[in-house]
Amino acid sequence: MTQSMHAHAREYAQYQADEAVRAGQNTPSVRRAGLMLATVTDVLTGGLVEVDGDMQVRRLASYTTPADGDLVVLADFGNGNWAVLGKLAT
Length: 90
Known about the structure:
By secondary structure, this protein is of the alpha+beta class. It contains 1 helix and 5 strands, in the order αβββββ. It has 2 domains: 1-31; 34-87, CATH 2.40.50.140. The chain is rod-shaped and about 65 Å long.
């Protein structure tokens, strides 16, 4: 039994939608920005901190006294840039 032209069109449209999602997940310029929590694991020079043991991120100037173990808000701007916005109260 053969599929109707409409069924083929629906399958192709779904395939294109799925491919767009996959491409967007791997392309920083397509991803949306997001916020997450992280733990400072090292305080570096030049306004940088290491978070979660594997990522060096610039901190805002308002986060003046970073320390190992700080729970911080980490912003992913969706274009490949990241920043530590500040420490959460504990």
